[in-house]
């Protein structure tokens, strides 16, 4: 069954508005979650590492004030795209590691964001 | 800095034939993990196979096998007996530093098309 639940699966918003994406760990508590962004026909680019109870760690070039990450509980991380613009239109996908040794990274089903 | 490279943007294979998807990596960490994921057009990330840097044998999972050549820093995915449902994007990814936690960095991806 699914390990990670991500919501919404798609969203259309107007330029200048903010959008919140939720990522839930279903099977276990996750102190760390990862947020990726994927443009069409491109690879997954790591945006940030979400740490429960502390600040997220952002990758170089990712604006932390634009992409707000909140990991307030051990099962929920949220990504808020603030003041969205058309260039923020992308596929956002969250993930977390499994508990077993050598477990793969489990992914949510992603959120397709379109900013008009 | 870690780097992972997939040099084949697109590949074609005849149904029931085998195909090899290339992946090379670069890291100075002696402990790392290599992963392959499949991403169909729906966007979900499907874990296929894992190879640890200290694993003595090449990983296999059903029709998937990983041709791990440590000295050459390559981790090619071999899909045997291709099926139409194998048509998708395939990503190679690497995690540095041990068996758990850490960031997963992806290659550029290879789009595989299986011909009937």
Characterization of this structure:
The complex is a heterodimer of chains A (about 120) and B (about 120). With about 120 residues, chain A is mainly β. In chain A, about 0% of the residues lie in helices and about 55% in strands. Chain A is built from no helices and eleven strands. In chain A, the strands form two sheets. In chain A, strands 2, 4, 5, 6, 9, 10 and 11 form a seven-stranded mixed beta sheet that branches. Chain A has a four-stranded antiparallel beta sheet with strand order 1-3-8-7, with no helix packed on it. In chain A, a hairpin with a 5-residue loop joins strand 4 and strand 5. Chain A is globular, with a radius of gyration of 13 Å. The mean pLDDT of chain A is about 95. Chain B is mostly beta strands. In chain B, the strands form three sheets. In chain B, strands 2, 5, 6, 10, 11 and 12 form a six-stranded mixed beta sheet that branches. Chain B has a four-stranded antiparallel beta sheet with strand order 3-9-8-7, with no helix packed on it. In chain B, a hairpin with a 7-residue loop joins strand 10 and strand 11. The interface between A and B is medium-sized, with 23 and 24 residues.
Write the layout of secondary structure elements.
The complex is a heterodimer of chains A (116) and B (116).
Chain A: E1 4-7, E2 10-13, E3 19-25, E4 32-38, E5 44-51, E6 57-58, E7 67-73, E8 76-81, E9 90-97, E10 105-107, E11 111-115
Parallel strand pairs in A: 2-11
Antiparallel strand pairs in A: 1-3, 3-8, 4-5, 4-9, 5-6, 7-8, 9-10, 9-11
Chain B: E1 3-5, E2 10-14, E3 19-21, E4 24-26, E5 32-39, E6 46-52, E7 60-61, E8 64-69, E9 74-79, E10 88-96, E11 104-106, E12 110-115
Parallel strand pairs in B: 2-12
Antiparallel strand pairs in B: 1-4, 3-9, 5-6, 5-10, 7-8, 8-9, 10-11, 10-12
